[in-house]
Design brief:
The protein has eight helices and 23 strands. Helix content is about 10%, strand content about 30%.
């Protein structure tokens, strides 16, 4: 099913069709002359000009088309893509209907207009504006009605530049009379969109199975960006790039924790295919953990038998520093209940401290102490008090990383270990949208200058709030913390905010070529 045409223009400053009984337009063509009496000619056709490989051809104008304004003819050099770029090139032809039908037609004109403009942001300026002949025109005559001259054979061409605002729609028309009272033909209908691709690489877990990004998550991710007029398309792994074999594009060997930017960069080096669609292609990698946060806590209690298991909730024991099974152990001490006060504390040998598996989650453990072979023999009559200091992950768990370039990381191991399974898809869908938002410049990240986006959370007491939206997770996906509500929308506040930015920002090669690079 084709997309619907743009909705009718709202009331406001958007230019609409001129009155049929109003004055004739007085605009000039690019280097042309003023209108003259064209009663003896008739508009025959309007076509779109498509240039590919240095050769121009014409085709019918579209009834409706998404125009991906951030893309250019360098993205795919194998075929023509009239749907790429802000510029629409149109050709009109007139013919004689009376008089000397063999005469020269270069003294006649075609009248162009924006018959319908749906513009959601009234405050566009400069290069963001639409217009005939040039983008960013501030001349109302170039933005609503325009005149071009025909050549000797009755042909004339005009360029129309769409606005830079995602979702804006424009319906173009051409006529052979100044007040559009004669023959009027469609110049096509176009809606402003952007397009990006993404490569998905999935790290293997401890068993060798990949951390799979479910289809439901991908659907929610793509749908959230369609809501702000960005189309996302997976660029499947292929052998088109011999420098990156297909299997390396698809999978990544297991690493328990990618602790910082350098570790993440090292892990994905040589796995991203740059053969196609760059710099409009993101690299999304599922990983186990990329956890920075850790804390120390004490588990303690009385031993009344040779082996003790910590009471209460299990602990997500830290296991990432050296890759050994003892990263979580800090220190253990014990004292006999009959030794004080004052209490006489002694160190517990590290080999006496262990952990007990959790049947519901293998990484959440109870701490144990085993004195079967001494150095003391706890009993009900002579209990032993033990206190074990351990290192655990948290209290904040990183579900994703992104921003500053095109590499995004989704922490699937963290998700599975710290969240209810019923919420996994919602939370990871939220994280996908959030991290790509960072890669596109939210909040105050390249291509934006620091401080340029006023809605950044300014709470300096919390390190995670920097470069995040101050509006809560119920209002904006760019809030620093995600919840199981799975909100994937961008906020809009008084015409500004994350949603306006995503729809308004220039994502052309001149910008992305400096941002989405390694």
């Amino acid at each position: 099913m084709s997309d619907p045409p743009p909705k009718p223009a709202p009331a406001g400053p958007s230019p609409g069709p001129p009155s049929a009984s109003g004055p004739a337009p007085t605009g000039k063509a690019c280097g042309g002359r003023t209108p003259c009496d064209d009663n003896e000619v008739e508009l025959v056709e309007v076509k779109e000009i498509v240039t590919f490989g240095g050769t121009s051809t014409v085709q019918d104008v579209p009834n409706f088309r998404k125009q991906y304004i951030n893309l250019d003819d360098q993205v795919d050099t194998s075929t023509a893509h009239p749907e790429y770029g802000r510029r629409i090139r149109l050709q009109a032809r007139i013919k004689w209907v009376r008089g000397d039908r063999k005469g020269n037609l270069n003294t006649h004109h075609v009248y162009w207009r924006v018959a319908l403009a749906v513009v959601d942001q009234p405050n566009l300026s400069g290069g963001e504006l639409w217009g005939f002949c040039r983008k960013g025109s501030s001349d109302p005559k170039e933005r609503s009605v325009f005149v071009s001259d025909t050549d000797a054979n009755g042909f004339t061409e005009v360029d129309f530049y769409l606005s830079q605002y995602g979702g804006d729609g424009f319906m173009l028309q051409a006529g052979d009379k100044p007040a559009f009272s004669g023959v009027v033909k469609s110049g096509g209908a176009y809606q402003v969109w952007r397009k990006f691709w993404y490569q998905l690489t999935q790290m293997k877990d401890e068993t060798g199975s990949p951390f799979v990004l479910p289809g439901a998550v991908i659907n929610d991710f793509e749908k959230a960006y369609k809501d702000v007029f960005i189309e996302l398309e997976e660029d499947p792994a292929s052998s088109a790039d011999p420098s990156v074999p297909k299997e390396r594009q698809e999978s990544l060997d297991h690493t328990a924790n990618l602790a910082d930017d350098q570790a993440r960069a090292n892990a994905t080096a040589g796995h991203f295919s740059k053969k196609k669609h760059c710099p409009f292609k993101a690299h999304i990698t599922t990983v186990d953990y990329s956890q920075l946060e850790s804390e120390h806590k004490f588990v303690d209690g009385y031993m009344t038998a040779a082996k003790w298991v910590s009471p209460g909730s299990p602990n997500l024991l830290w296991r990432f520093d050296s890759g050994t099974d003892s990263d979580w152990k800090v220190k253990g001490r014990y004292c006999l209940s009959t030794s004080g006060p004052p209490w006489i504390w002694k160190d517990i040998p590290p080999e006496k401290i262990g952990k007990e598996p959790n049947p519901t989650n293998k990484h959440w453990m109870q701490v144990s102490v085993d004195f079967t072979d001494g150095p003391v023999k706890p009993s009900v009559e002579v209990p032993v008090y033990v206190s074990v200091e351990v290192k655990v992950a948290g209290p904040i768990f990183e579900l994703g990383w992104g921003g500053g370039n095109h590499h995004l990381f989704l922490c699937m191991g963290t998700l599975h270990d710290t969240q209810n399974s019923a919420d996994w898809d919602l939370l990871m869908g939220n994280t996908c949208v959030h991290e790509l938002g960072h890669a596109l410049g939210l909040v105050n990240i390249k291509p934006n200058a620091p401080g340029s986006q006023s809605w950044e959370d300014q709470d300096s007491t919390h390190q995670h709030k920097a470069n995040h939206c101050k509006f809560s997770s119920s209002d904006c996906v760019m809030f620093w913390e995600v919840f199981s509500s799975g909100v994937t929308k961008f906020h809009l506040d008084g015409g500004a905010g994350c949603r306006d930015y995503i729809r308004r920002q220039d994502f052309s090669r001149s910008v992305m070529g400096h941002v989405w690079v390694d």
